[in-house]
Amino acid sequence: MRGTASAAAVLLALTGCATLPADPHRPRVALDTSAGRIVLAVDAKAAPVTSCNFIGYVVSGDYDGGSFFRTVVRAINVANPNPIDVIQAATPRGSDDASRPPIALERTRDTGLRHHAGTVSMARDGPDTATSSFFIVTEDTPSLDFGGGRNPDGQGFAAFGAVIQGLDVTRRIQHMRAGSDEQLIAPVAIRSARLLDPIPGACAKARQP
């Protein structure tokens, strides 16, 4: 009986730990994809505008049924003087999803975040145009930071989190077959995107009128 009770207590403790965020400012989001599970930690303290926007799409189920549709591999992306290693995702409505207004660009100059391997960041055209499409960096890519040359405006992209589980999955997706337009021949389905931890206070405040 004592052994059974002790085992149950340990299981309860482990279960409790699994449901609590390591950091209330960095909630986790689990992406269940057709290529495997990817878990992100979103940094709502360093990049609140971008993080809360992303979390809003997650809790509304907007990424469910979406996909990772694009891959860029530095080794073959030689036409651009600032090659990158990323995979890009979108909602079922596509990368130009206009269901919500675009958000202000949180520059890495201001957030202190950088585009290291595993960083999650927002796709955009000009500054302040990002909506729902995001990308995951598979290798360190400083040209995506503020002052980097990947975008001609030099403003960089809004990093807002990092992969904490499944970086191997992202790299596997990156090396799937793609056409000359960097579009995956068989896009990787996002079956679901789920917030594993409570919504950060910064996001709750942002939703108040």
Question: Topology of this protein?
Answer:
Blueprint: H1 2-19, E1 28-33, E2 36-42, H2 48-59, E3 66-72, E4 86-90, H3 108-111, E5 119-122, E6 134-137, E7 159-165, H4 167-174, E8 183-195, H5 201-206
Antiparallel strand pairs: 1-2, 1-8, 2-7, 3-4, 3-8, 4-6, 5-6, 5-7
Describe the structure.
- With 209 residues, the protein is α+β, with helices and mostly antiparallel strands.
- The protein is built from five helices and eight strands.
- It has helices spanning 2-19, 48-59, 108-111, 167-174, 201-206; strands spanning 28-33, 36-42, 66-72, 86-90, 119-122, 134-137, 159-165, 183-195.
- Strands 1-2-7-5-6-4-3-8 form an eight-stranded antiparallel barrel.
- Strand 1 (28-33) and strand 2 (36-42) form a beta hairpin.
- The longest helix has 18 residues, at 2-19.
- The model is unreliable at 1-20 (pLDDT under 50).
